[in-house]
Design brief:
- The chain is an alpha+beta fold and 325 residues long.
- The protein contains eight helices and 20 strands.
- The protein folds into two domains: 187 residues, no CATH class; 111 residues, Arc Repressor Mutant, subunit A, CATH 1.10.10.
- The strands form three sheets. Strands 1, 2, 3, 4, 5, 6, 7, 8, 9, 10, 11 and 12 form a twelve-stranded mixed beta sheet that branches. Strands 13, 14, 15, 16 and 20 form a five-stranded mixed beta sheet that branches.
- α2 runs parallel beside α5.
- The longest helix has 21 residues.
């Protein structure tokens, strides 16, 4: 019943979004990963204003069509001096504010385009959820931007009144009562693209190949021997296999993950705390490991699938060195 009701809603909180993605994709997705998808451009994040805020509305136009920015009034009542102008949001467009320009009050759900301070605000929340370092507070002259469902752009403003004049300044924060949410349509689009990508990998896999016929045995900290079916391949080092950082040539984190999987019998239980950087980092490293292993045998079959209730498990047999630390 809860799932049916969730589908009727236009937006979900980030906690609810994580639960939705976990169920739809068949593997656990955390709140931090929801934010990371937004920061990486895979998922449109939104904000819900419980109380109205002040902003200026405009639309994206080619730079040569943007008119000059003029002094305007707040709700046509208070004369102000401004410190803002038409703002570039891409290489081919700027936001042209409405004419006559004025600050209006907006509320409800608006999307975050990640072109101004809103990106830093989300990044800071991501750092908090992943036990990372908080971002230093800085003044971003771009201000905080929003986009509406009808194509409108909005920059938030705050009013600074003095004894002699009223100054309008771009706002660099979101109100404390603003709630970060995700539109249900954005989540459905992410799920659709993710599943289509997975289906493409499966469709492209060689029909005669199966990871269950592969054995990978560590012969030392920096080398392994791979057996495919009855064929034993020569012992190879991490650099030959593609597990080295490009500049330093040291073992990369995918190699560290491979060693960890070998040590734990081919399983990474995310609930056990085995991987210190956390779930989000583990997921990224597993993806890097998948890419390298698929390239080694020229297949799209998943070498490290996620099993609900267990964690990540190798689809092949993996053995540690006898002197494994």
């Amino acid at each position: 019943m809860a799932e049916k009701l969730r589908r009727l809603r236009a937006w979900l909180t980030r906690q609810e979004a994580a639960a939705y993605l976990s169920q739809a994709l068949g593997e656990e997705v955390t709140e931090a990963e929801v934010l990371r998808h937004g920061l990486d451009g895979d998922l449109t994040l939104s904000v819900r204003f419980v109380n109205a805020v002040e902003g200026m509305l405009g639309r994206v136009v080619p730079p040569d069509q943007a008119g000059p920015f003029r002094t305007f009034s707040i709700e046509d009542k208070i004369a102000v001096t401004t410190v803002c102008q038409n703002v570039p949001v891409s290489e081919c467009g700027v936001v042209q504010f409405a004419t006559p320009e004025k600050v209006v009050r907006i509320d409800g759900v608006w999307d975050l385009p990640m072109v101004g301070t809103e990106s830093r605000l989300v990044e800071d929340q991501y750092q908090v959820l992943t036990d990372g370092r908080r971002l230093q507070q800085t003044i971003d002259l771009r201000g905080t931007w929003l986009t509406g469902s009808n194509g409108e752009w909005c920059r938030l403003y705050k009013i600074d009144s003095t004894a002699t004049r009223t100054i309008l300044l771009p706002d660099h924060e979101l109100p404390d009562d603003a709630v970060l949410v995700v539109r249900t349509t954005a989540l459905e689009d992410l799920v659709r693209r993710t599943l289509a990508q997975q289906e493409g990998h499966e469709a492209g896999a060689k029909p005669d190949f199966s990871w269950k016929h592969v054995t990978m045995r560590f012969t030392g900290k920096e080398s392994v021997q791979i057996t495919v079916g009855g064929s034993v391949l020569p012992e190879q080092g991490y650099e030959e296999l593609g597990f080295a950082y490009e500049r330093s040539k040291n073992p990369n984190r995918a190699w560290t993950m491979l060693r960890l999987l070998a040590k734990n019998g081919g399983t990474l239980e995310l609930t056990s705390g085995q991987f210190a950087p956390g779930r989000s980092q583990a997921r990224k490293t597993i993806q890097e490991l998948r890419t390298i292993l698929r390239d080694l045998v020229k297949t799209d079959a998943d070498p490290v699938p996620f099993k609900k209730g267990i964690g990540y498990t190798t689809a092949f047999k993996i053995e540690p060195d006898t002197a494994f630390d």
